[in-house]
Amino acid sequence: MVPRINHNEEGYTLVEILVALAIMSVVLSLVSVTLIFVSGRMVAWDNQISFYNNFHIVNDQLYNDLFRAESMTHTDTTLSIELSNNKIRNYAWMKGTLKVNSKPFLADQDSVWISISENETLKKGTKTITYHLLLKNEGRSMKDSTVIQLRKPLNWEPIE
């Protein structure tokens, strides 16, 4: 007698396993491509945000230093500011680097440019300083122009 084959065995056939592996590999490849794309966009977004943050940090510090300045001297590539507490802050920009007191202030940029002009006003003891700041890096650029009207605290008239 020949033994009978039981056709009610449970399990998966080789074809079913291969189809499941093919579907899983397609899904995993789509997920990995999506993750690579998203991580690339996140890196680009992070670079853009840090560029704009760097610009605002430089702009804010320059504004605050000029606003509090007791005296200043400047050339095409340098700015020296004497602050009220006898501290001197030296800015230098050349070949895409900005240094404050001979230390790099921010990561290298393609271009850093600061232009300063000062005007005496008609009122005694007041001075107007105008500065232009330009930062360029990897195709992005930002420019800001600011006018500061200074009046030394010692020259302020008391309020009665």
Overall description:
The protein has 160 residues and is an alpha+beta fold. It has one helix at residues 14-68, and strands at residues 69-74, 78-83, 88-94, 97-100, 103-104, 111-120, 126-137, 140-151. It has one helix and eight strands; from the N terminus they run H-E-E-E-E-E-E-E-E. A hairpin with a 2-residue loop joins strand 4 and strand 5 (103-104). The longest helix is centred in the first third of the chain and has 55 residues, at 14-68.
Number of separate strands? 8
Instruction: Estimate the mean pLDDT confidence.
Output: 83
Strand content: 35-45%
State the secondary-structure class. Answer: alpha+beta
Ends apart, CA distance between termini: 125 Å
Overall outline: rod-shaped
Helix content range: 25-40%
Task: Give the neighbour order of strands across the main sheet.
Answer: 1-2-3-4-5
Largest beta-sheet details? 5 strands, antiparallel
Series of H and E elements: HEEEEEEEE
Segments where pLDDT lies below 50 for 5+ residues? none
> What is the number of helical segments per DSSP (H or I, 4+ residues)?
1
The radius of gyration over CA amounts to 32 Å
Write the topology of this structure.
Blueprint: H1 14-68, E1 69-74, E2 78-83, E3 88-94, E4 97-100, E5 103-104, E6 111-120, E7 126-137, E8 140-151
Antiparallel strand pairs: 1-2, 2-3, 3-4, 4-5, 6-7, 7-8
Put the structure in a nutshell.
The protein has 160 residues and is an alpha+beta fold. It is 34% helix and 37% strand. A hairpin with a 3-residue loop joins strand 1 (69-74) and strand 2.
